[in-house]
Amino acid sequence: YVTGSDYVKDRFESRFLALLIAITGIVATMPYIALQMFGIEVVLSQMGLPVDASLVTAFVVLALYTYVSGLRAPALIALVKDTLIYITVIVAVIYIPIRLGGYGHIFSQIPKAKLTLPPEVLPAYATLAFGSALALFLYPHAMTAVFSSRSAKVVERNAAILPAYSFVLGLIALLGYMAIAAHTSANGPFGANGAVPQLIEDMFPGWFAGFAFAAIAIGALVPASVMSIAAANLFGRNVWQEYVRRGRMTAREETTVAKIVSLLVKVGALVFILFINTDVVINYQLAGGVWILQTLPAVMLALYVPWLNRYGVIAGWFVGIIFGTYQLIQVKFETSVSTSFLGGSSPIYIAVTALFLNLAAVLLVSGALRLTGVRSAAEKRPSELQA
């Protein structure tokens, strides 16, 4: 397998379900790439490029990097990216507090109401964390990374290191408090999204600020390139090959199609940045999470429940996608939580409520078909499933 849709097609013996999973992966990845591209734009603008020029530069660099180098380049440069980020974060969380009088002084500058989550938003926080964790390994780029690994040991080693990387993300969140304590101006073209780059420029000498900006840019470039490659693979293998060039596509043609589509995916991400309110750009990435989470029954649950039927999974996908998209439209994509599920009063991540309905439909339809004697594709191949 190269993509999640490859697995779905084989597991359920359904080209149509594989197509749905491919389309979902492509659409859900575009706002994610847009978020990475936006991060590069902010950094380049902070370094002195005009806003429009920084966006164009971010797009061109990402497009050329992916088109010319393919998957090997981001895989090889990932070690450099992580090293730069670790150095930047460790220096920042030590040096900046020293400049500001210590962490005690920093936290004393923050209103107490902003130091803890109010009880009414705890359901939103918990479901966002839970839904995002489930969605993380469903994205096409995560599967591309897993399927292209040399062995299972590589996946195990990276999974073991992942909590340390997540801890660094927590340290990065502290930079927001530091920006408040330092009275960093957030009045630039990117508003609050530009506060941390401005903090870095204010606190560090020029040479280290440039180092930190390079870390941020490369930290966005690597995942964005893998995302566009993964989306292109989905189109090339599970759309173009299956429905346009069925049985006639050569390996060279598959590569060419993937390269072209990777560019088109980046154009789609560019459109997101140009036509949305970038103040809420994170919500579009979370909207991608709403859509990609609806592939969980086909990609993940199917590994453990052999009696899931393709018709049940297709029904669940339609229920989850329609409900999730409707909810996002209701809130105008300005947030990713809603209180309109089952008449509740607490905001909940739309992806989780959509997945709940998705799973209900999957289990109901699959269970009903099983009671009528209809066996799933996996149940017809028990020896292969056990192997």
Characterization of this structure:
This protein has helices at 4-12, 15-46, 51-69, 72-100, 103-108, 122-136, 140-147, 152-181, 195-203, 206-243, 251-275, 281-292, 296-299, 310-330, 350-371, 382-386; strands spanning 337-338, 348-349. By secondary structure, the protein is mainly alpha-helical. It has a two-stranded antiparallel ribbon with strand order 1-2. Helix 7 packs across helix 10 (206-243) and helix 8 packs across helix 9. It is globular. The two termini are 16 Å apart. The model has no long low-confidence stretch (mean pLDDT 86).
Structural descriptors:
387 residues; mainly alpha; two-stranded antiparallel ribbon; 16 helices; globular
Instruction: Give the ordered list of helices and strands.
Output: HHHHHHHHHHHHHHEEHH
Number of strands: 2
**Overall form:** globular
Provide the spatial order of strands within the biggest beta sheet: 1-2
The low-confidence parts are none
Share of β-strand residues: under 5%
Task: Work out the helicity level.
Answer: over 70%
Mean pLDDT: 86
Based on secondary structure, the structural category is mainly alpha
Distance between the termini: 16 Å
Count of DSSP-assigned helices: 16
The radius of gyration is 22 Å
Biggest β-sheet, characterized?
2 strands, antiparallel
